[in-house]
């Protein structure tokens, strides 16, 4: 049987590489631009699909995948925050209560 056939798709080395990329992204003082993060994610994903035995190139591809995924998630979360210009200002909200919660 071929060695590549016996190599598990997700193993300890895969988890360590993804975790290293994620940790590297989250330890940065500022996020890179989202196009760079998207390119790292896409490149890491494409290289990790090549399969085969996990070597240095495969580990770097998975680290880039983890870096890009964590960075894109962080950028998405930061984009949904309230802009600083709108902080400390009064706002008027209107709405309707359709139903009260039913507790059993």
Task: Name a few traits of the molecule.
mainly alpha, 104 residues
Your description of this structure?
This protein has 104 residues and is mainly α. Helices cover 56% and strands 0% of the residues. It has helices at residues 3-6, 12-26, 34-48, 56-79. Helix 3 packs antiparallel against helix 4 (56-79). The mean pLDDT is 86.
Strand content: under 5%
Order of helices and strands: HHHH
Shape: elongated
How many distinct beta strands?
Answer: 0
Structural class designation: mainly alpha
Largest sheet: none
Which segments are poorly predicted (pLDDT under 50) over 5 or more consecutive residues?
none
Mean pLDDT: 86
Spatial gap, N to C terminus: 59 Å
Count, helices: 4
> How much helix, percentage-wise, in residues?
55-70%
Please compute the radius of gyration using only Cα atoms. Answer: 21 Å
What is this structure's SSE topology?
Blueprint (H helix, E strand, L loop, with lengths): L2 H4 L5 H15 L7 H15 L7 H24 L25
Helix pairs in contact: 2-4, 3-4
Compact overview of the structure:
This protein has helices at residues 3-6, 12-26, 34-48, 56-79. The protein has 104 residues and is mainly α.
């Amino acid at each position: 049987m071929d060695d590549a056939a016996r190599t598990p798709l997700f193993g300890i080395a895969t988890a360590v590489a993804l975790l290293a990329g994620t940790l590297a992204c989250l330890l940065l003082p500022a996020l890179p631009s989202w196009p760079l993060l998207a390119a790292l994610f896409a490149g890491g994903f494409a290289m990790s699909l090549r399969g085969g035995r996990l070597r240095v190139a495969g580990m770097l591809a998975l680290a880039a995948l983890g870096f890009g995924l964590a960075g894109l998630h962080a950028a998405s979360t930061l984009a949904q925050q309230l802009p600083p210009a709108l902080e400390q200002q009064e706002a008027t909200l209107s709405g309707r209560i359709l139903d009260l919660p039913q507790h059993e």
